[in-house]
Amino acid sequence: MTWYDYPLLQNREQLRRELLSGKKVLTIARELGCSRAAVTAAMRHHNLTRPFLTIGEQTRKKLRL
């Protein structure tokens, strides 16, 4: 099966939220029952990358981001 067979992978915002929550690509793939390659293909299609650092809301406000 390919990435577009999975509704979560078809939806850019849902996939983005999963990545921003700190989930690894392998974790997302296991939860969906698909391959890691399917998740990374969907990420490429939606032009998404794994976040390297997430900034909390309080820090964001302090930094005025």
What does it look like?
- The chain has 65 residues and is mostly helical.
- Helix content is 58%, strand content 0%.
- It has one domain (3-63).
- It contains five helices and no strands.
- Helix 3 (25-32) packs across helix 4.
- The longest helix is centred in the middle third of the chain and has 10 residues, at 36-45.
- The model has no long low-confidence stretch (mean pLDDT 90).
Topology:
Elements: H1 7-10, H2 12-20, H3 25-32, H4 36-45, H5 57-63
Describe this protein with a few key phrases.
65 residues, 5 helices, single chain, mainly alpha
According to DSSP, the number of beta strands is 0
Q: Quick check: average pLDDT?
A: 90
Q: Span from first to last CA?
A: 40 Å
Shape estimate: elongated
Which class of secondary structure composition applies to the elements? mainly alpha
Q: What value does the Rg take, in angstroms? A: 13 Å
How many helices does DSSP assign? Answer: 5
Oligomer: single chain
- Note the beta-strand portion: under 5%
Summarize the structure.
This protein has 5 helices and no strands. It has 65 residues and is mainly alpha-helical. The N and C termini lie far apart (40 Å).
